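Researcher: Here's a chain I'd like modeled. Treat it as a single chain, no partners, no ligands.
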Amino acid sequence: MTTLTVNIDNKKAEKAIKAVLDALGLNYNIEQNVNSAKQNLNEEEQRVYNNLKRSFTKIKMHKEGKIKLQNAKDAISEIEASLKD
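Model: Modeled as a single isolated chain. C-alpha coordinates:
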Protein backbone atom coordinates (compact mmCIF):
# COMPACT_ATOMS: atom_id res chain seq x y z
CA MET A 1 0.00 0.00 0.00
CA THR A 2 1.19 3.51 -0.79
CA THR A 3 0.30 6.58 1.22
CA LEU A 4 0.03 9.91 -0.54
CA THR A 5 -0.29 13.11 1.44
CA VAL A 6 -1.66 16.13 -0.40
CA ASN A 7 -2.06 19.55 1.19
CA ILE A 8 -4.88 21.46 -0.49
CA ASP A 9 -5.64 25.07 0.39
CA ASN A 10 -8.35 25.47 -2.22
CA LYS A 11 -11.77 23.95 -1.43
CA LYS A 12 -12.66 23.78 -5.13
CA ALA A 13 -9.52 21.77 -5.91
CA GLU A 14 -10.28 19.52 -2.94
CA LYS A 15 -13.71 18.68 -4.38
CA ALA A 16 -12.17 17.84 -7.76
CA ILE A 17 -9.51 15.61 -6.19
CA LYS A 18 -12.13 13.83 -4.07
CA ALA A 19 -14.21 13.19 -7.20
CA VAL A 20 -11.19 11.66 -8.94
CA LEU A 21 -10.37 9.44 -5.97
CA ASP A 22 -14.03 8.36 -5.64
CA ALA A 23 -14.29 7.59 -9.33
CA LEU A 24 -11.14 5.47 -9.19
CA GLY A 25 -12.45 3.63 -6.16
CA LEU A 26 -9.56 4.65 -3.93
CA ASN A 27 -9.80 4.91 -0.16
CA TYR A 28 -8.72 8.16 1.43
CA ASN A 29 -8.79 10.00 4.72
CA ILE A 30 -9.39 13.70 5.15
CA GLU A 31 -7.80 15.73 7.90
CA GLN A 32 -9.18 19.24 7.88
CA ASN A 33 -7.70 22.28 9.48
CA VAL A 34 -10.34 23.85 11.71
CA ASN A 35 -9.53 27.27 10.23
CA SER A 36 -10.40 26.25 6.68
CA ALA A 37 -13.41 28.06 5.24
CA LYS A 38 -15.95 26.37 2.99
CA GLN A 39 -16.18 27.92 -0.46
CA ASN A 40 -19.06 27.28 -2.80
CA LEU A 41 -18.35 26.65 -6.45
CA ASN A 42 -19.59 29.15 -8.97
CA GLU A 43 -21.76 27.93 -11.84
CA GLU A 44 -18.87 27.27 -14.24
CA GLU A 45 -16.78 25.50 -11.59
CA GLN A 46 -19.75 23.34 -10.60
CA ARG A 47 -20.30 22.40 -14.27
CA VAL A 48 -16.64 21.37 -14.64
CA TYR A 49 -16.76 19.46 -11.35
CA ASN A 50 -19.92 17.60 -12.41
CA ASN A 51 -18.42 16.74 -15.81
CA LEU A 52 -15.23 15.42 -14.22
CA LYS A 53 -17.15 13.39 -11.68
CA ARG A 54 -19.41 11.91 -14.39
CA SER A 55 -16.40 11.11 -16.60
CA PHE A 56 -14.49 9.38 -13.83
CA THR A 57 -17.59 7.42 -12.86
CA LYS A 58 -17.86 6.18 -16.45
CA ILE A 59 -14.16 5.23 -16.45
CA LYS A 60 -14.65 3.27 -13.23
CA MET A 61 -17.70 1.49 -14.67
CA HIS A 62 -15.71 0.68 -17.83
CA LYS A 63 -12.88 -0.80 -15.75
CA GLU A 64 -15.43 -2.92 -13.87
CA GLY A 65 -16.83 -4.18 -17.19
CA LYS A 66 -20.25 -2.60 -16.59
CA ILE A 67 -20.15 -0.36 -19.68
CA LYS A 68 -18.14 -0.13 -22.88
CA LEU A 69 -16.67 3.24 -23.76
CA GLN A 70 -16.27 4.52 -27.28
CA ASN A 71 -12.67 4.55 -28.48
CA ALA A 72 -11.02 7.89 -29.30
CA LYS A 73 -10.92 7.37 -33.08
CA ASP A 74 -14.65 6.68 -33.23
CA ALA A 75 -15.39 9.69 -31.02
CA ILE A 76 -13.29 11.98 -33.23
CA SER A 77 -14.96 10.64 -36.37
CA GLU A 78 -18.36 11.26 -34.82
CA ILE A 79 -17.43 14.84 -33.92
CA GLU A 80 -16.01 15.49 -37.39
CA ALA A 81 -19.19 14.14 -39.00
CA SER A 82 -21.37 16.40 -36.85
CA LEU A 83 -19.28 19.44 -37.85
CA LYS A 84 -19.86 18.72 -41.55
CA ASP A 85 -23.65 18.91 -41.13
